[in-house]
Amino acid sequence: MCGILAVLGCSDDSQAKRARHGDCFLAHQRLAIVDPASGDQPLYNEDETIFVTVNGEIYNHEELRKRLAGHRFRTGSDCEVIAHLYEEYGEGFVDMLDGMFSFVLLDTRDDSFIAARDAIGITPLYIGWGLEGSVWISSEMKGLNDECQRFEVFPPGHMYTSKGGSHERWYNPPWYVEAIPSAPYDPLVLREAFEKAVIKRLMTVVPFGVLLSGGLDSSLVAAVISRHMAGTRAAEQWGTQLHSFCVGLEGSPDLKAAKDVADHLGTVHHEFHFTVQDGIDAIEDVIYHTETYDVTTIRASTPMFLMSRKIKAMGVKMVISGEGSDELFGGYLYFHRAPNKEEFHRETCRKIKALHQYDCLRANKATSAWGLEARVPFLDKGFIDVAMGIDPEWKMIKPDLGRIEKWVLRKAFDDEAKPYLPKHILYRQKEQFSDGVGYRWIDGLKAHAAEHVSDKMMQHAEHIYPYNTPATKEAYHYRMIFERFFPQNSARLTVPGGPSVACSTAKAVEWDAQWSKNVDPSGRAAVGVHSSAYDPTALSLLDAKHRMTEVMASGLTVS
Known about the structure:
The chain is α+β, with helices and mostly antiparallel strands and 559 residues long. The protein is built from 21 helices and 17 strands. The strands form three sheets. It has a six-stranded antiparallel sheet. Helix 7 (276-290) packs across helix 19.
């Protein structure tokens, strides 16, 4: 992904930026995936009165260029259409874009600007305000935290205009208001929509691959690419054999499952191992790059961060990944306890709206830290429309009918004549990424945190951190690191909080009284659902061991 920074209405003439017009500056750090030779930014219209800096990919840019027949393009960049669309259609053009994007556009004809972020928030974006009246917009919080009096997350599916001075939502799908859909389930329609979403993301002229955990979602991505890659421009450039990448602790569930999928599909498979200590050593870098203290995000970002470094070292610049499916289809194990289809659907809506603060943030920042771009076909606008239009009764988990989590997706790709995946992969139980890389990973993180955070520190946590007070030693440990990098109040407010079980929202914790006693974002906290759920007795023993370690370290005798 690229990095962008816009300073609008800045009186500081010392600002050395890539492009300047009056008191406005635009800066851009490019990761070139489409048209590496001529697509440097900012991008302009014909007479250079409109220019734009963009982070993202516009998958329908060729179609949009045909609608702009009277315009002259300077580059082959997919993002150049943004300047011309604005010139042709004004601010209403944003919904025409099919892709992931964050951009700032400056119109020098009236000294106005607009900024916008993609529908789900796949690309990161923040906005801040300086004391002298300037507006700052950046793809990283680090670009704002020393300059702005206040800053916040730029909301997905919104635009901000200098004329209006506020955010306006441009993305307005029916699911956003949580209306219960009623469309019947058609497996072929769902399959075709996903295949189309995957194929359009093969728009690249650089080496690429797929992140393959061996779970359902990443395996389907790999299967669809393998089946449809022949004849694409990507295949013409790099051949038809797909490269796949997996990371895990030695002997982890993901490594074994990913190898099975890779063997079935015939990919060139790359398996990366890490140790618990490798992950612990990277935690501070992960928090710095992901700009969060959310526990489950840090747990999952760390192995992804370690893997991304190795992938980029191989010369690969883009990967396709499986984020978003669990939110669309209720794939997290806590959905087993959804009381009815209405609550099931509302929870999926809540999860999709929050993706930009969790999985999208992880997938983008853990990879882009090393100059690697991640694309996520499950979050294609067209596919979301199809998936979220299905009557949620079909998505409900019903073991008596043989319907496990994400049954509608599994069934859509259960092709007996020409299997996409082996059955044991197609119907593999959901594993959250931070669990699938190896159960010892989370257990090791908890033990490490217990060595750095005492019971006494936890007793005063609500006074030290009154906002999003850490409920565990692991959370406290991450919070201390985060506050060291980002001490501003605005920074801590960008991270959501509240109780969670197996990645649930706080509302869904109410579905099972047992969960409130074991609130943890790991999938293994779904007691009574996960096949390797936490043993409450073992947890108690682990806590006792940590307490004993602390007492012995203090020099007291344990009786």
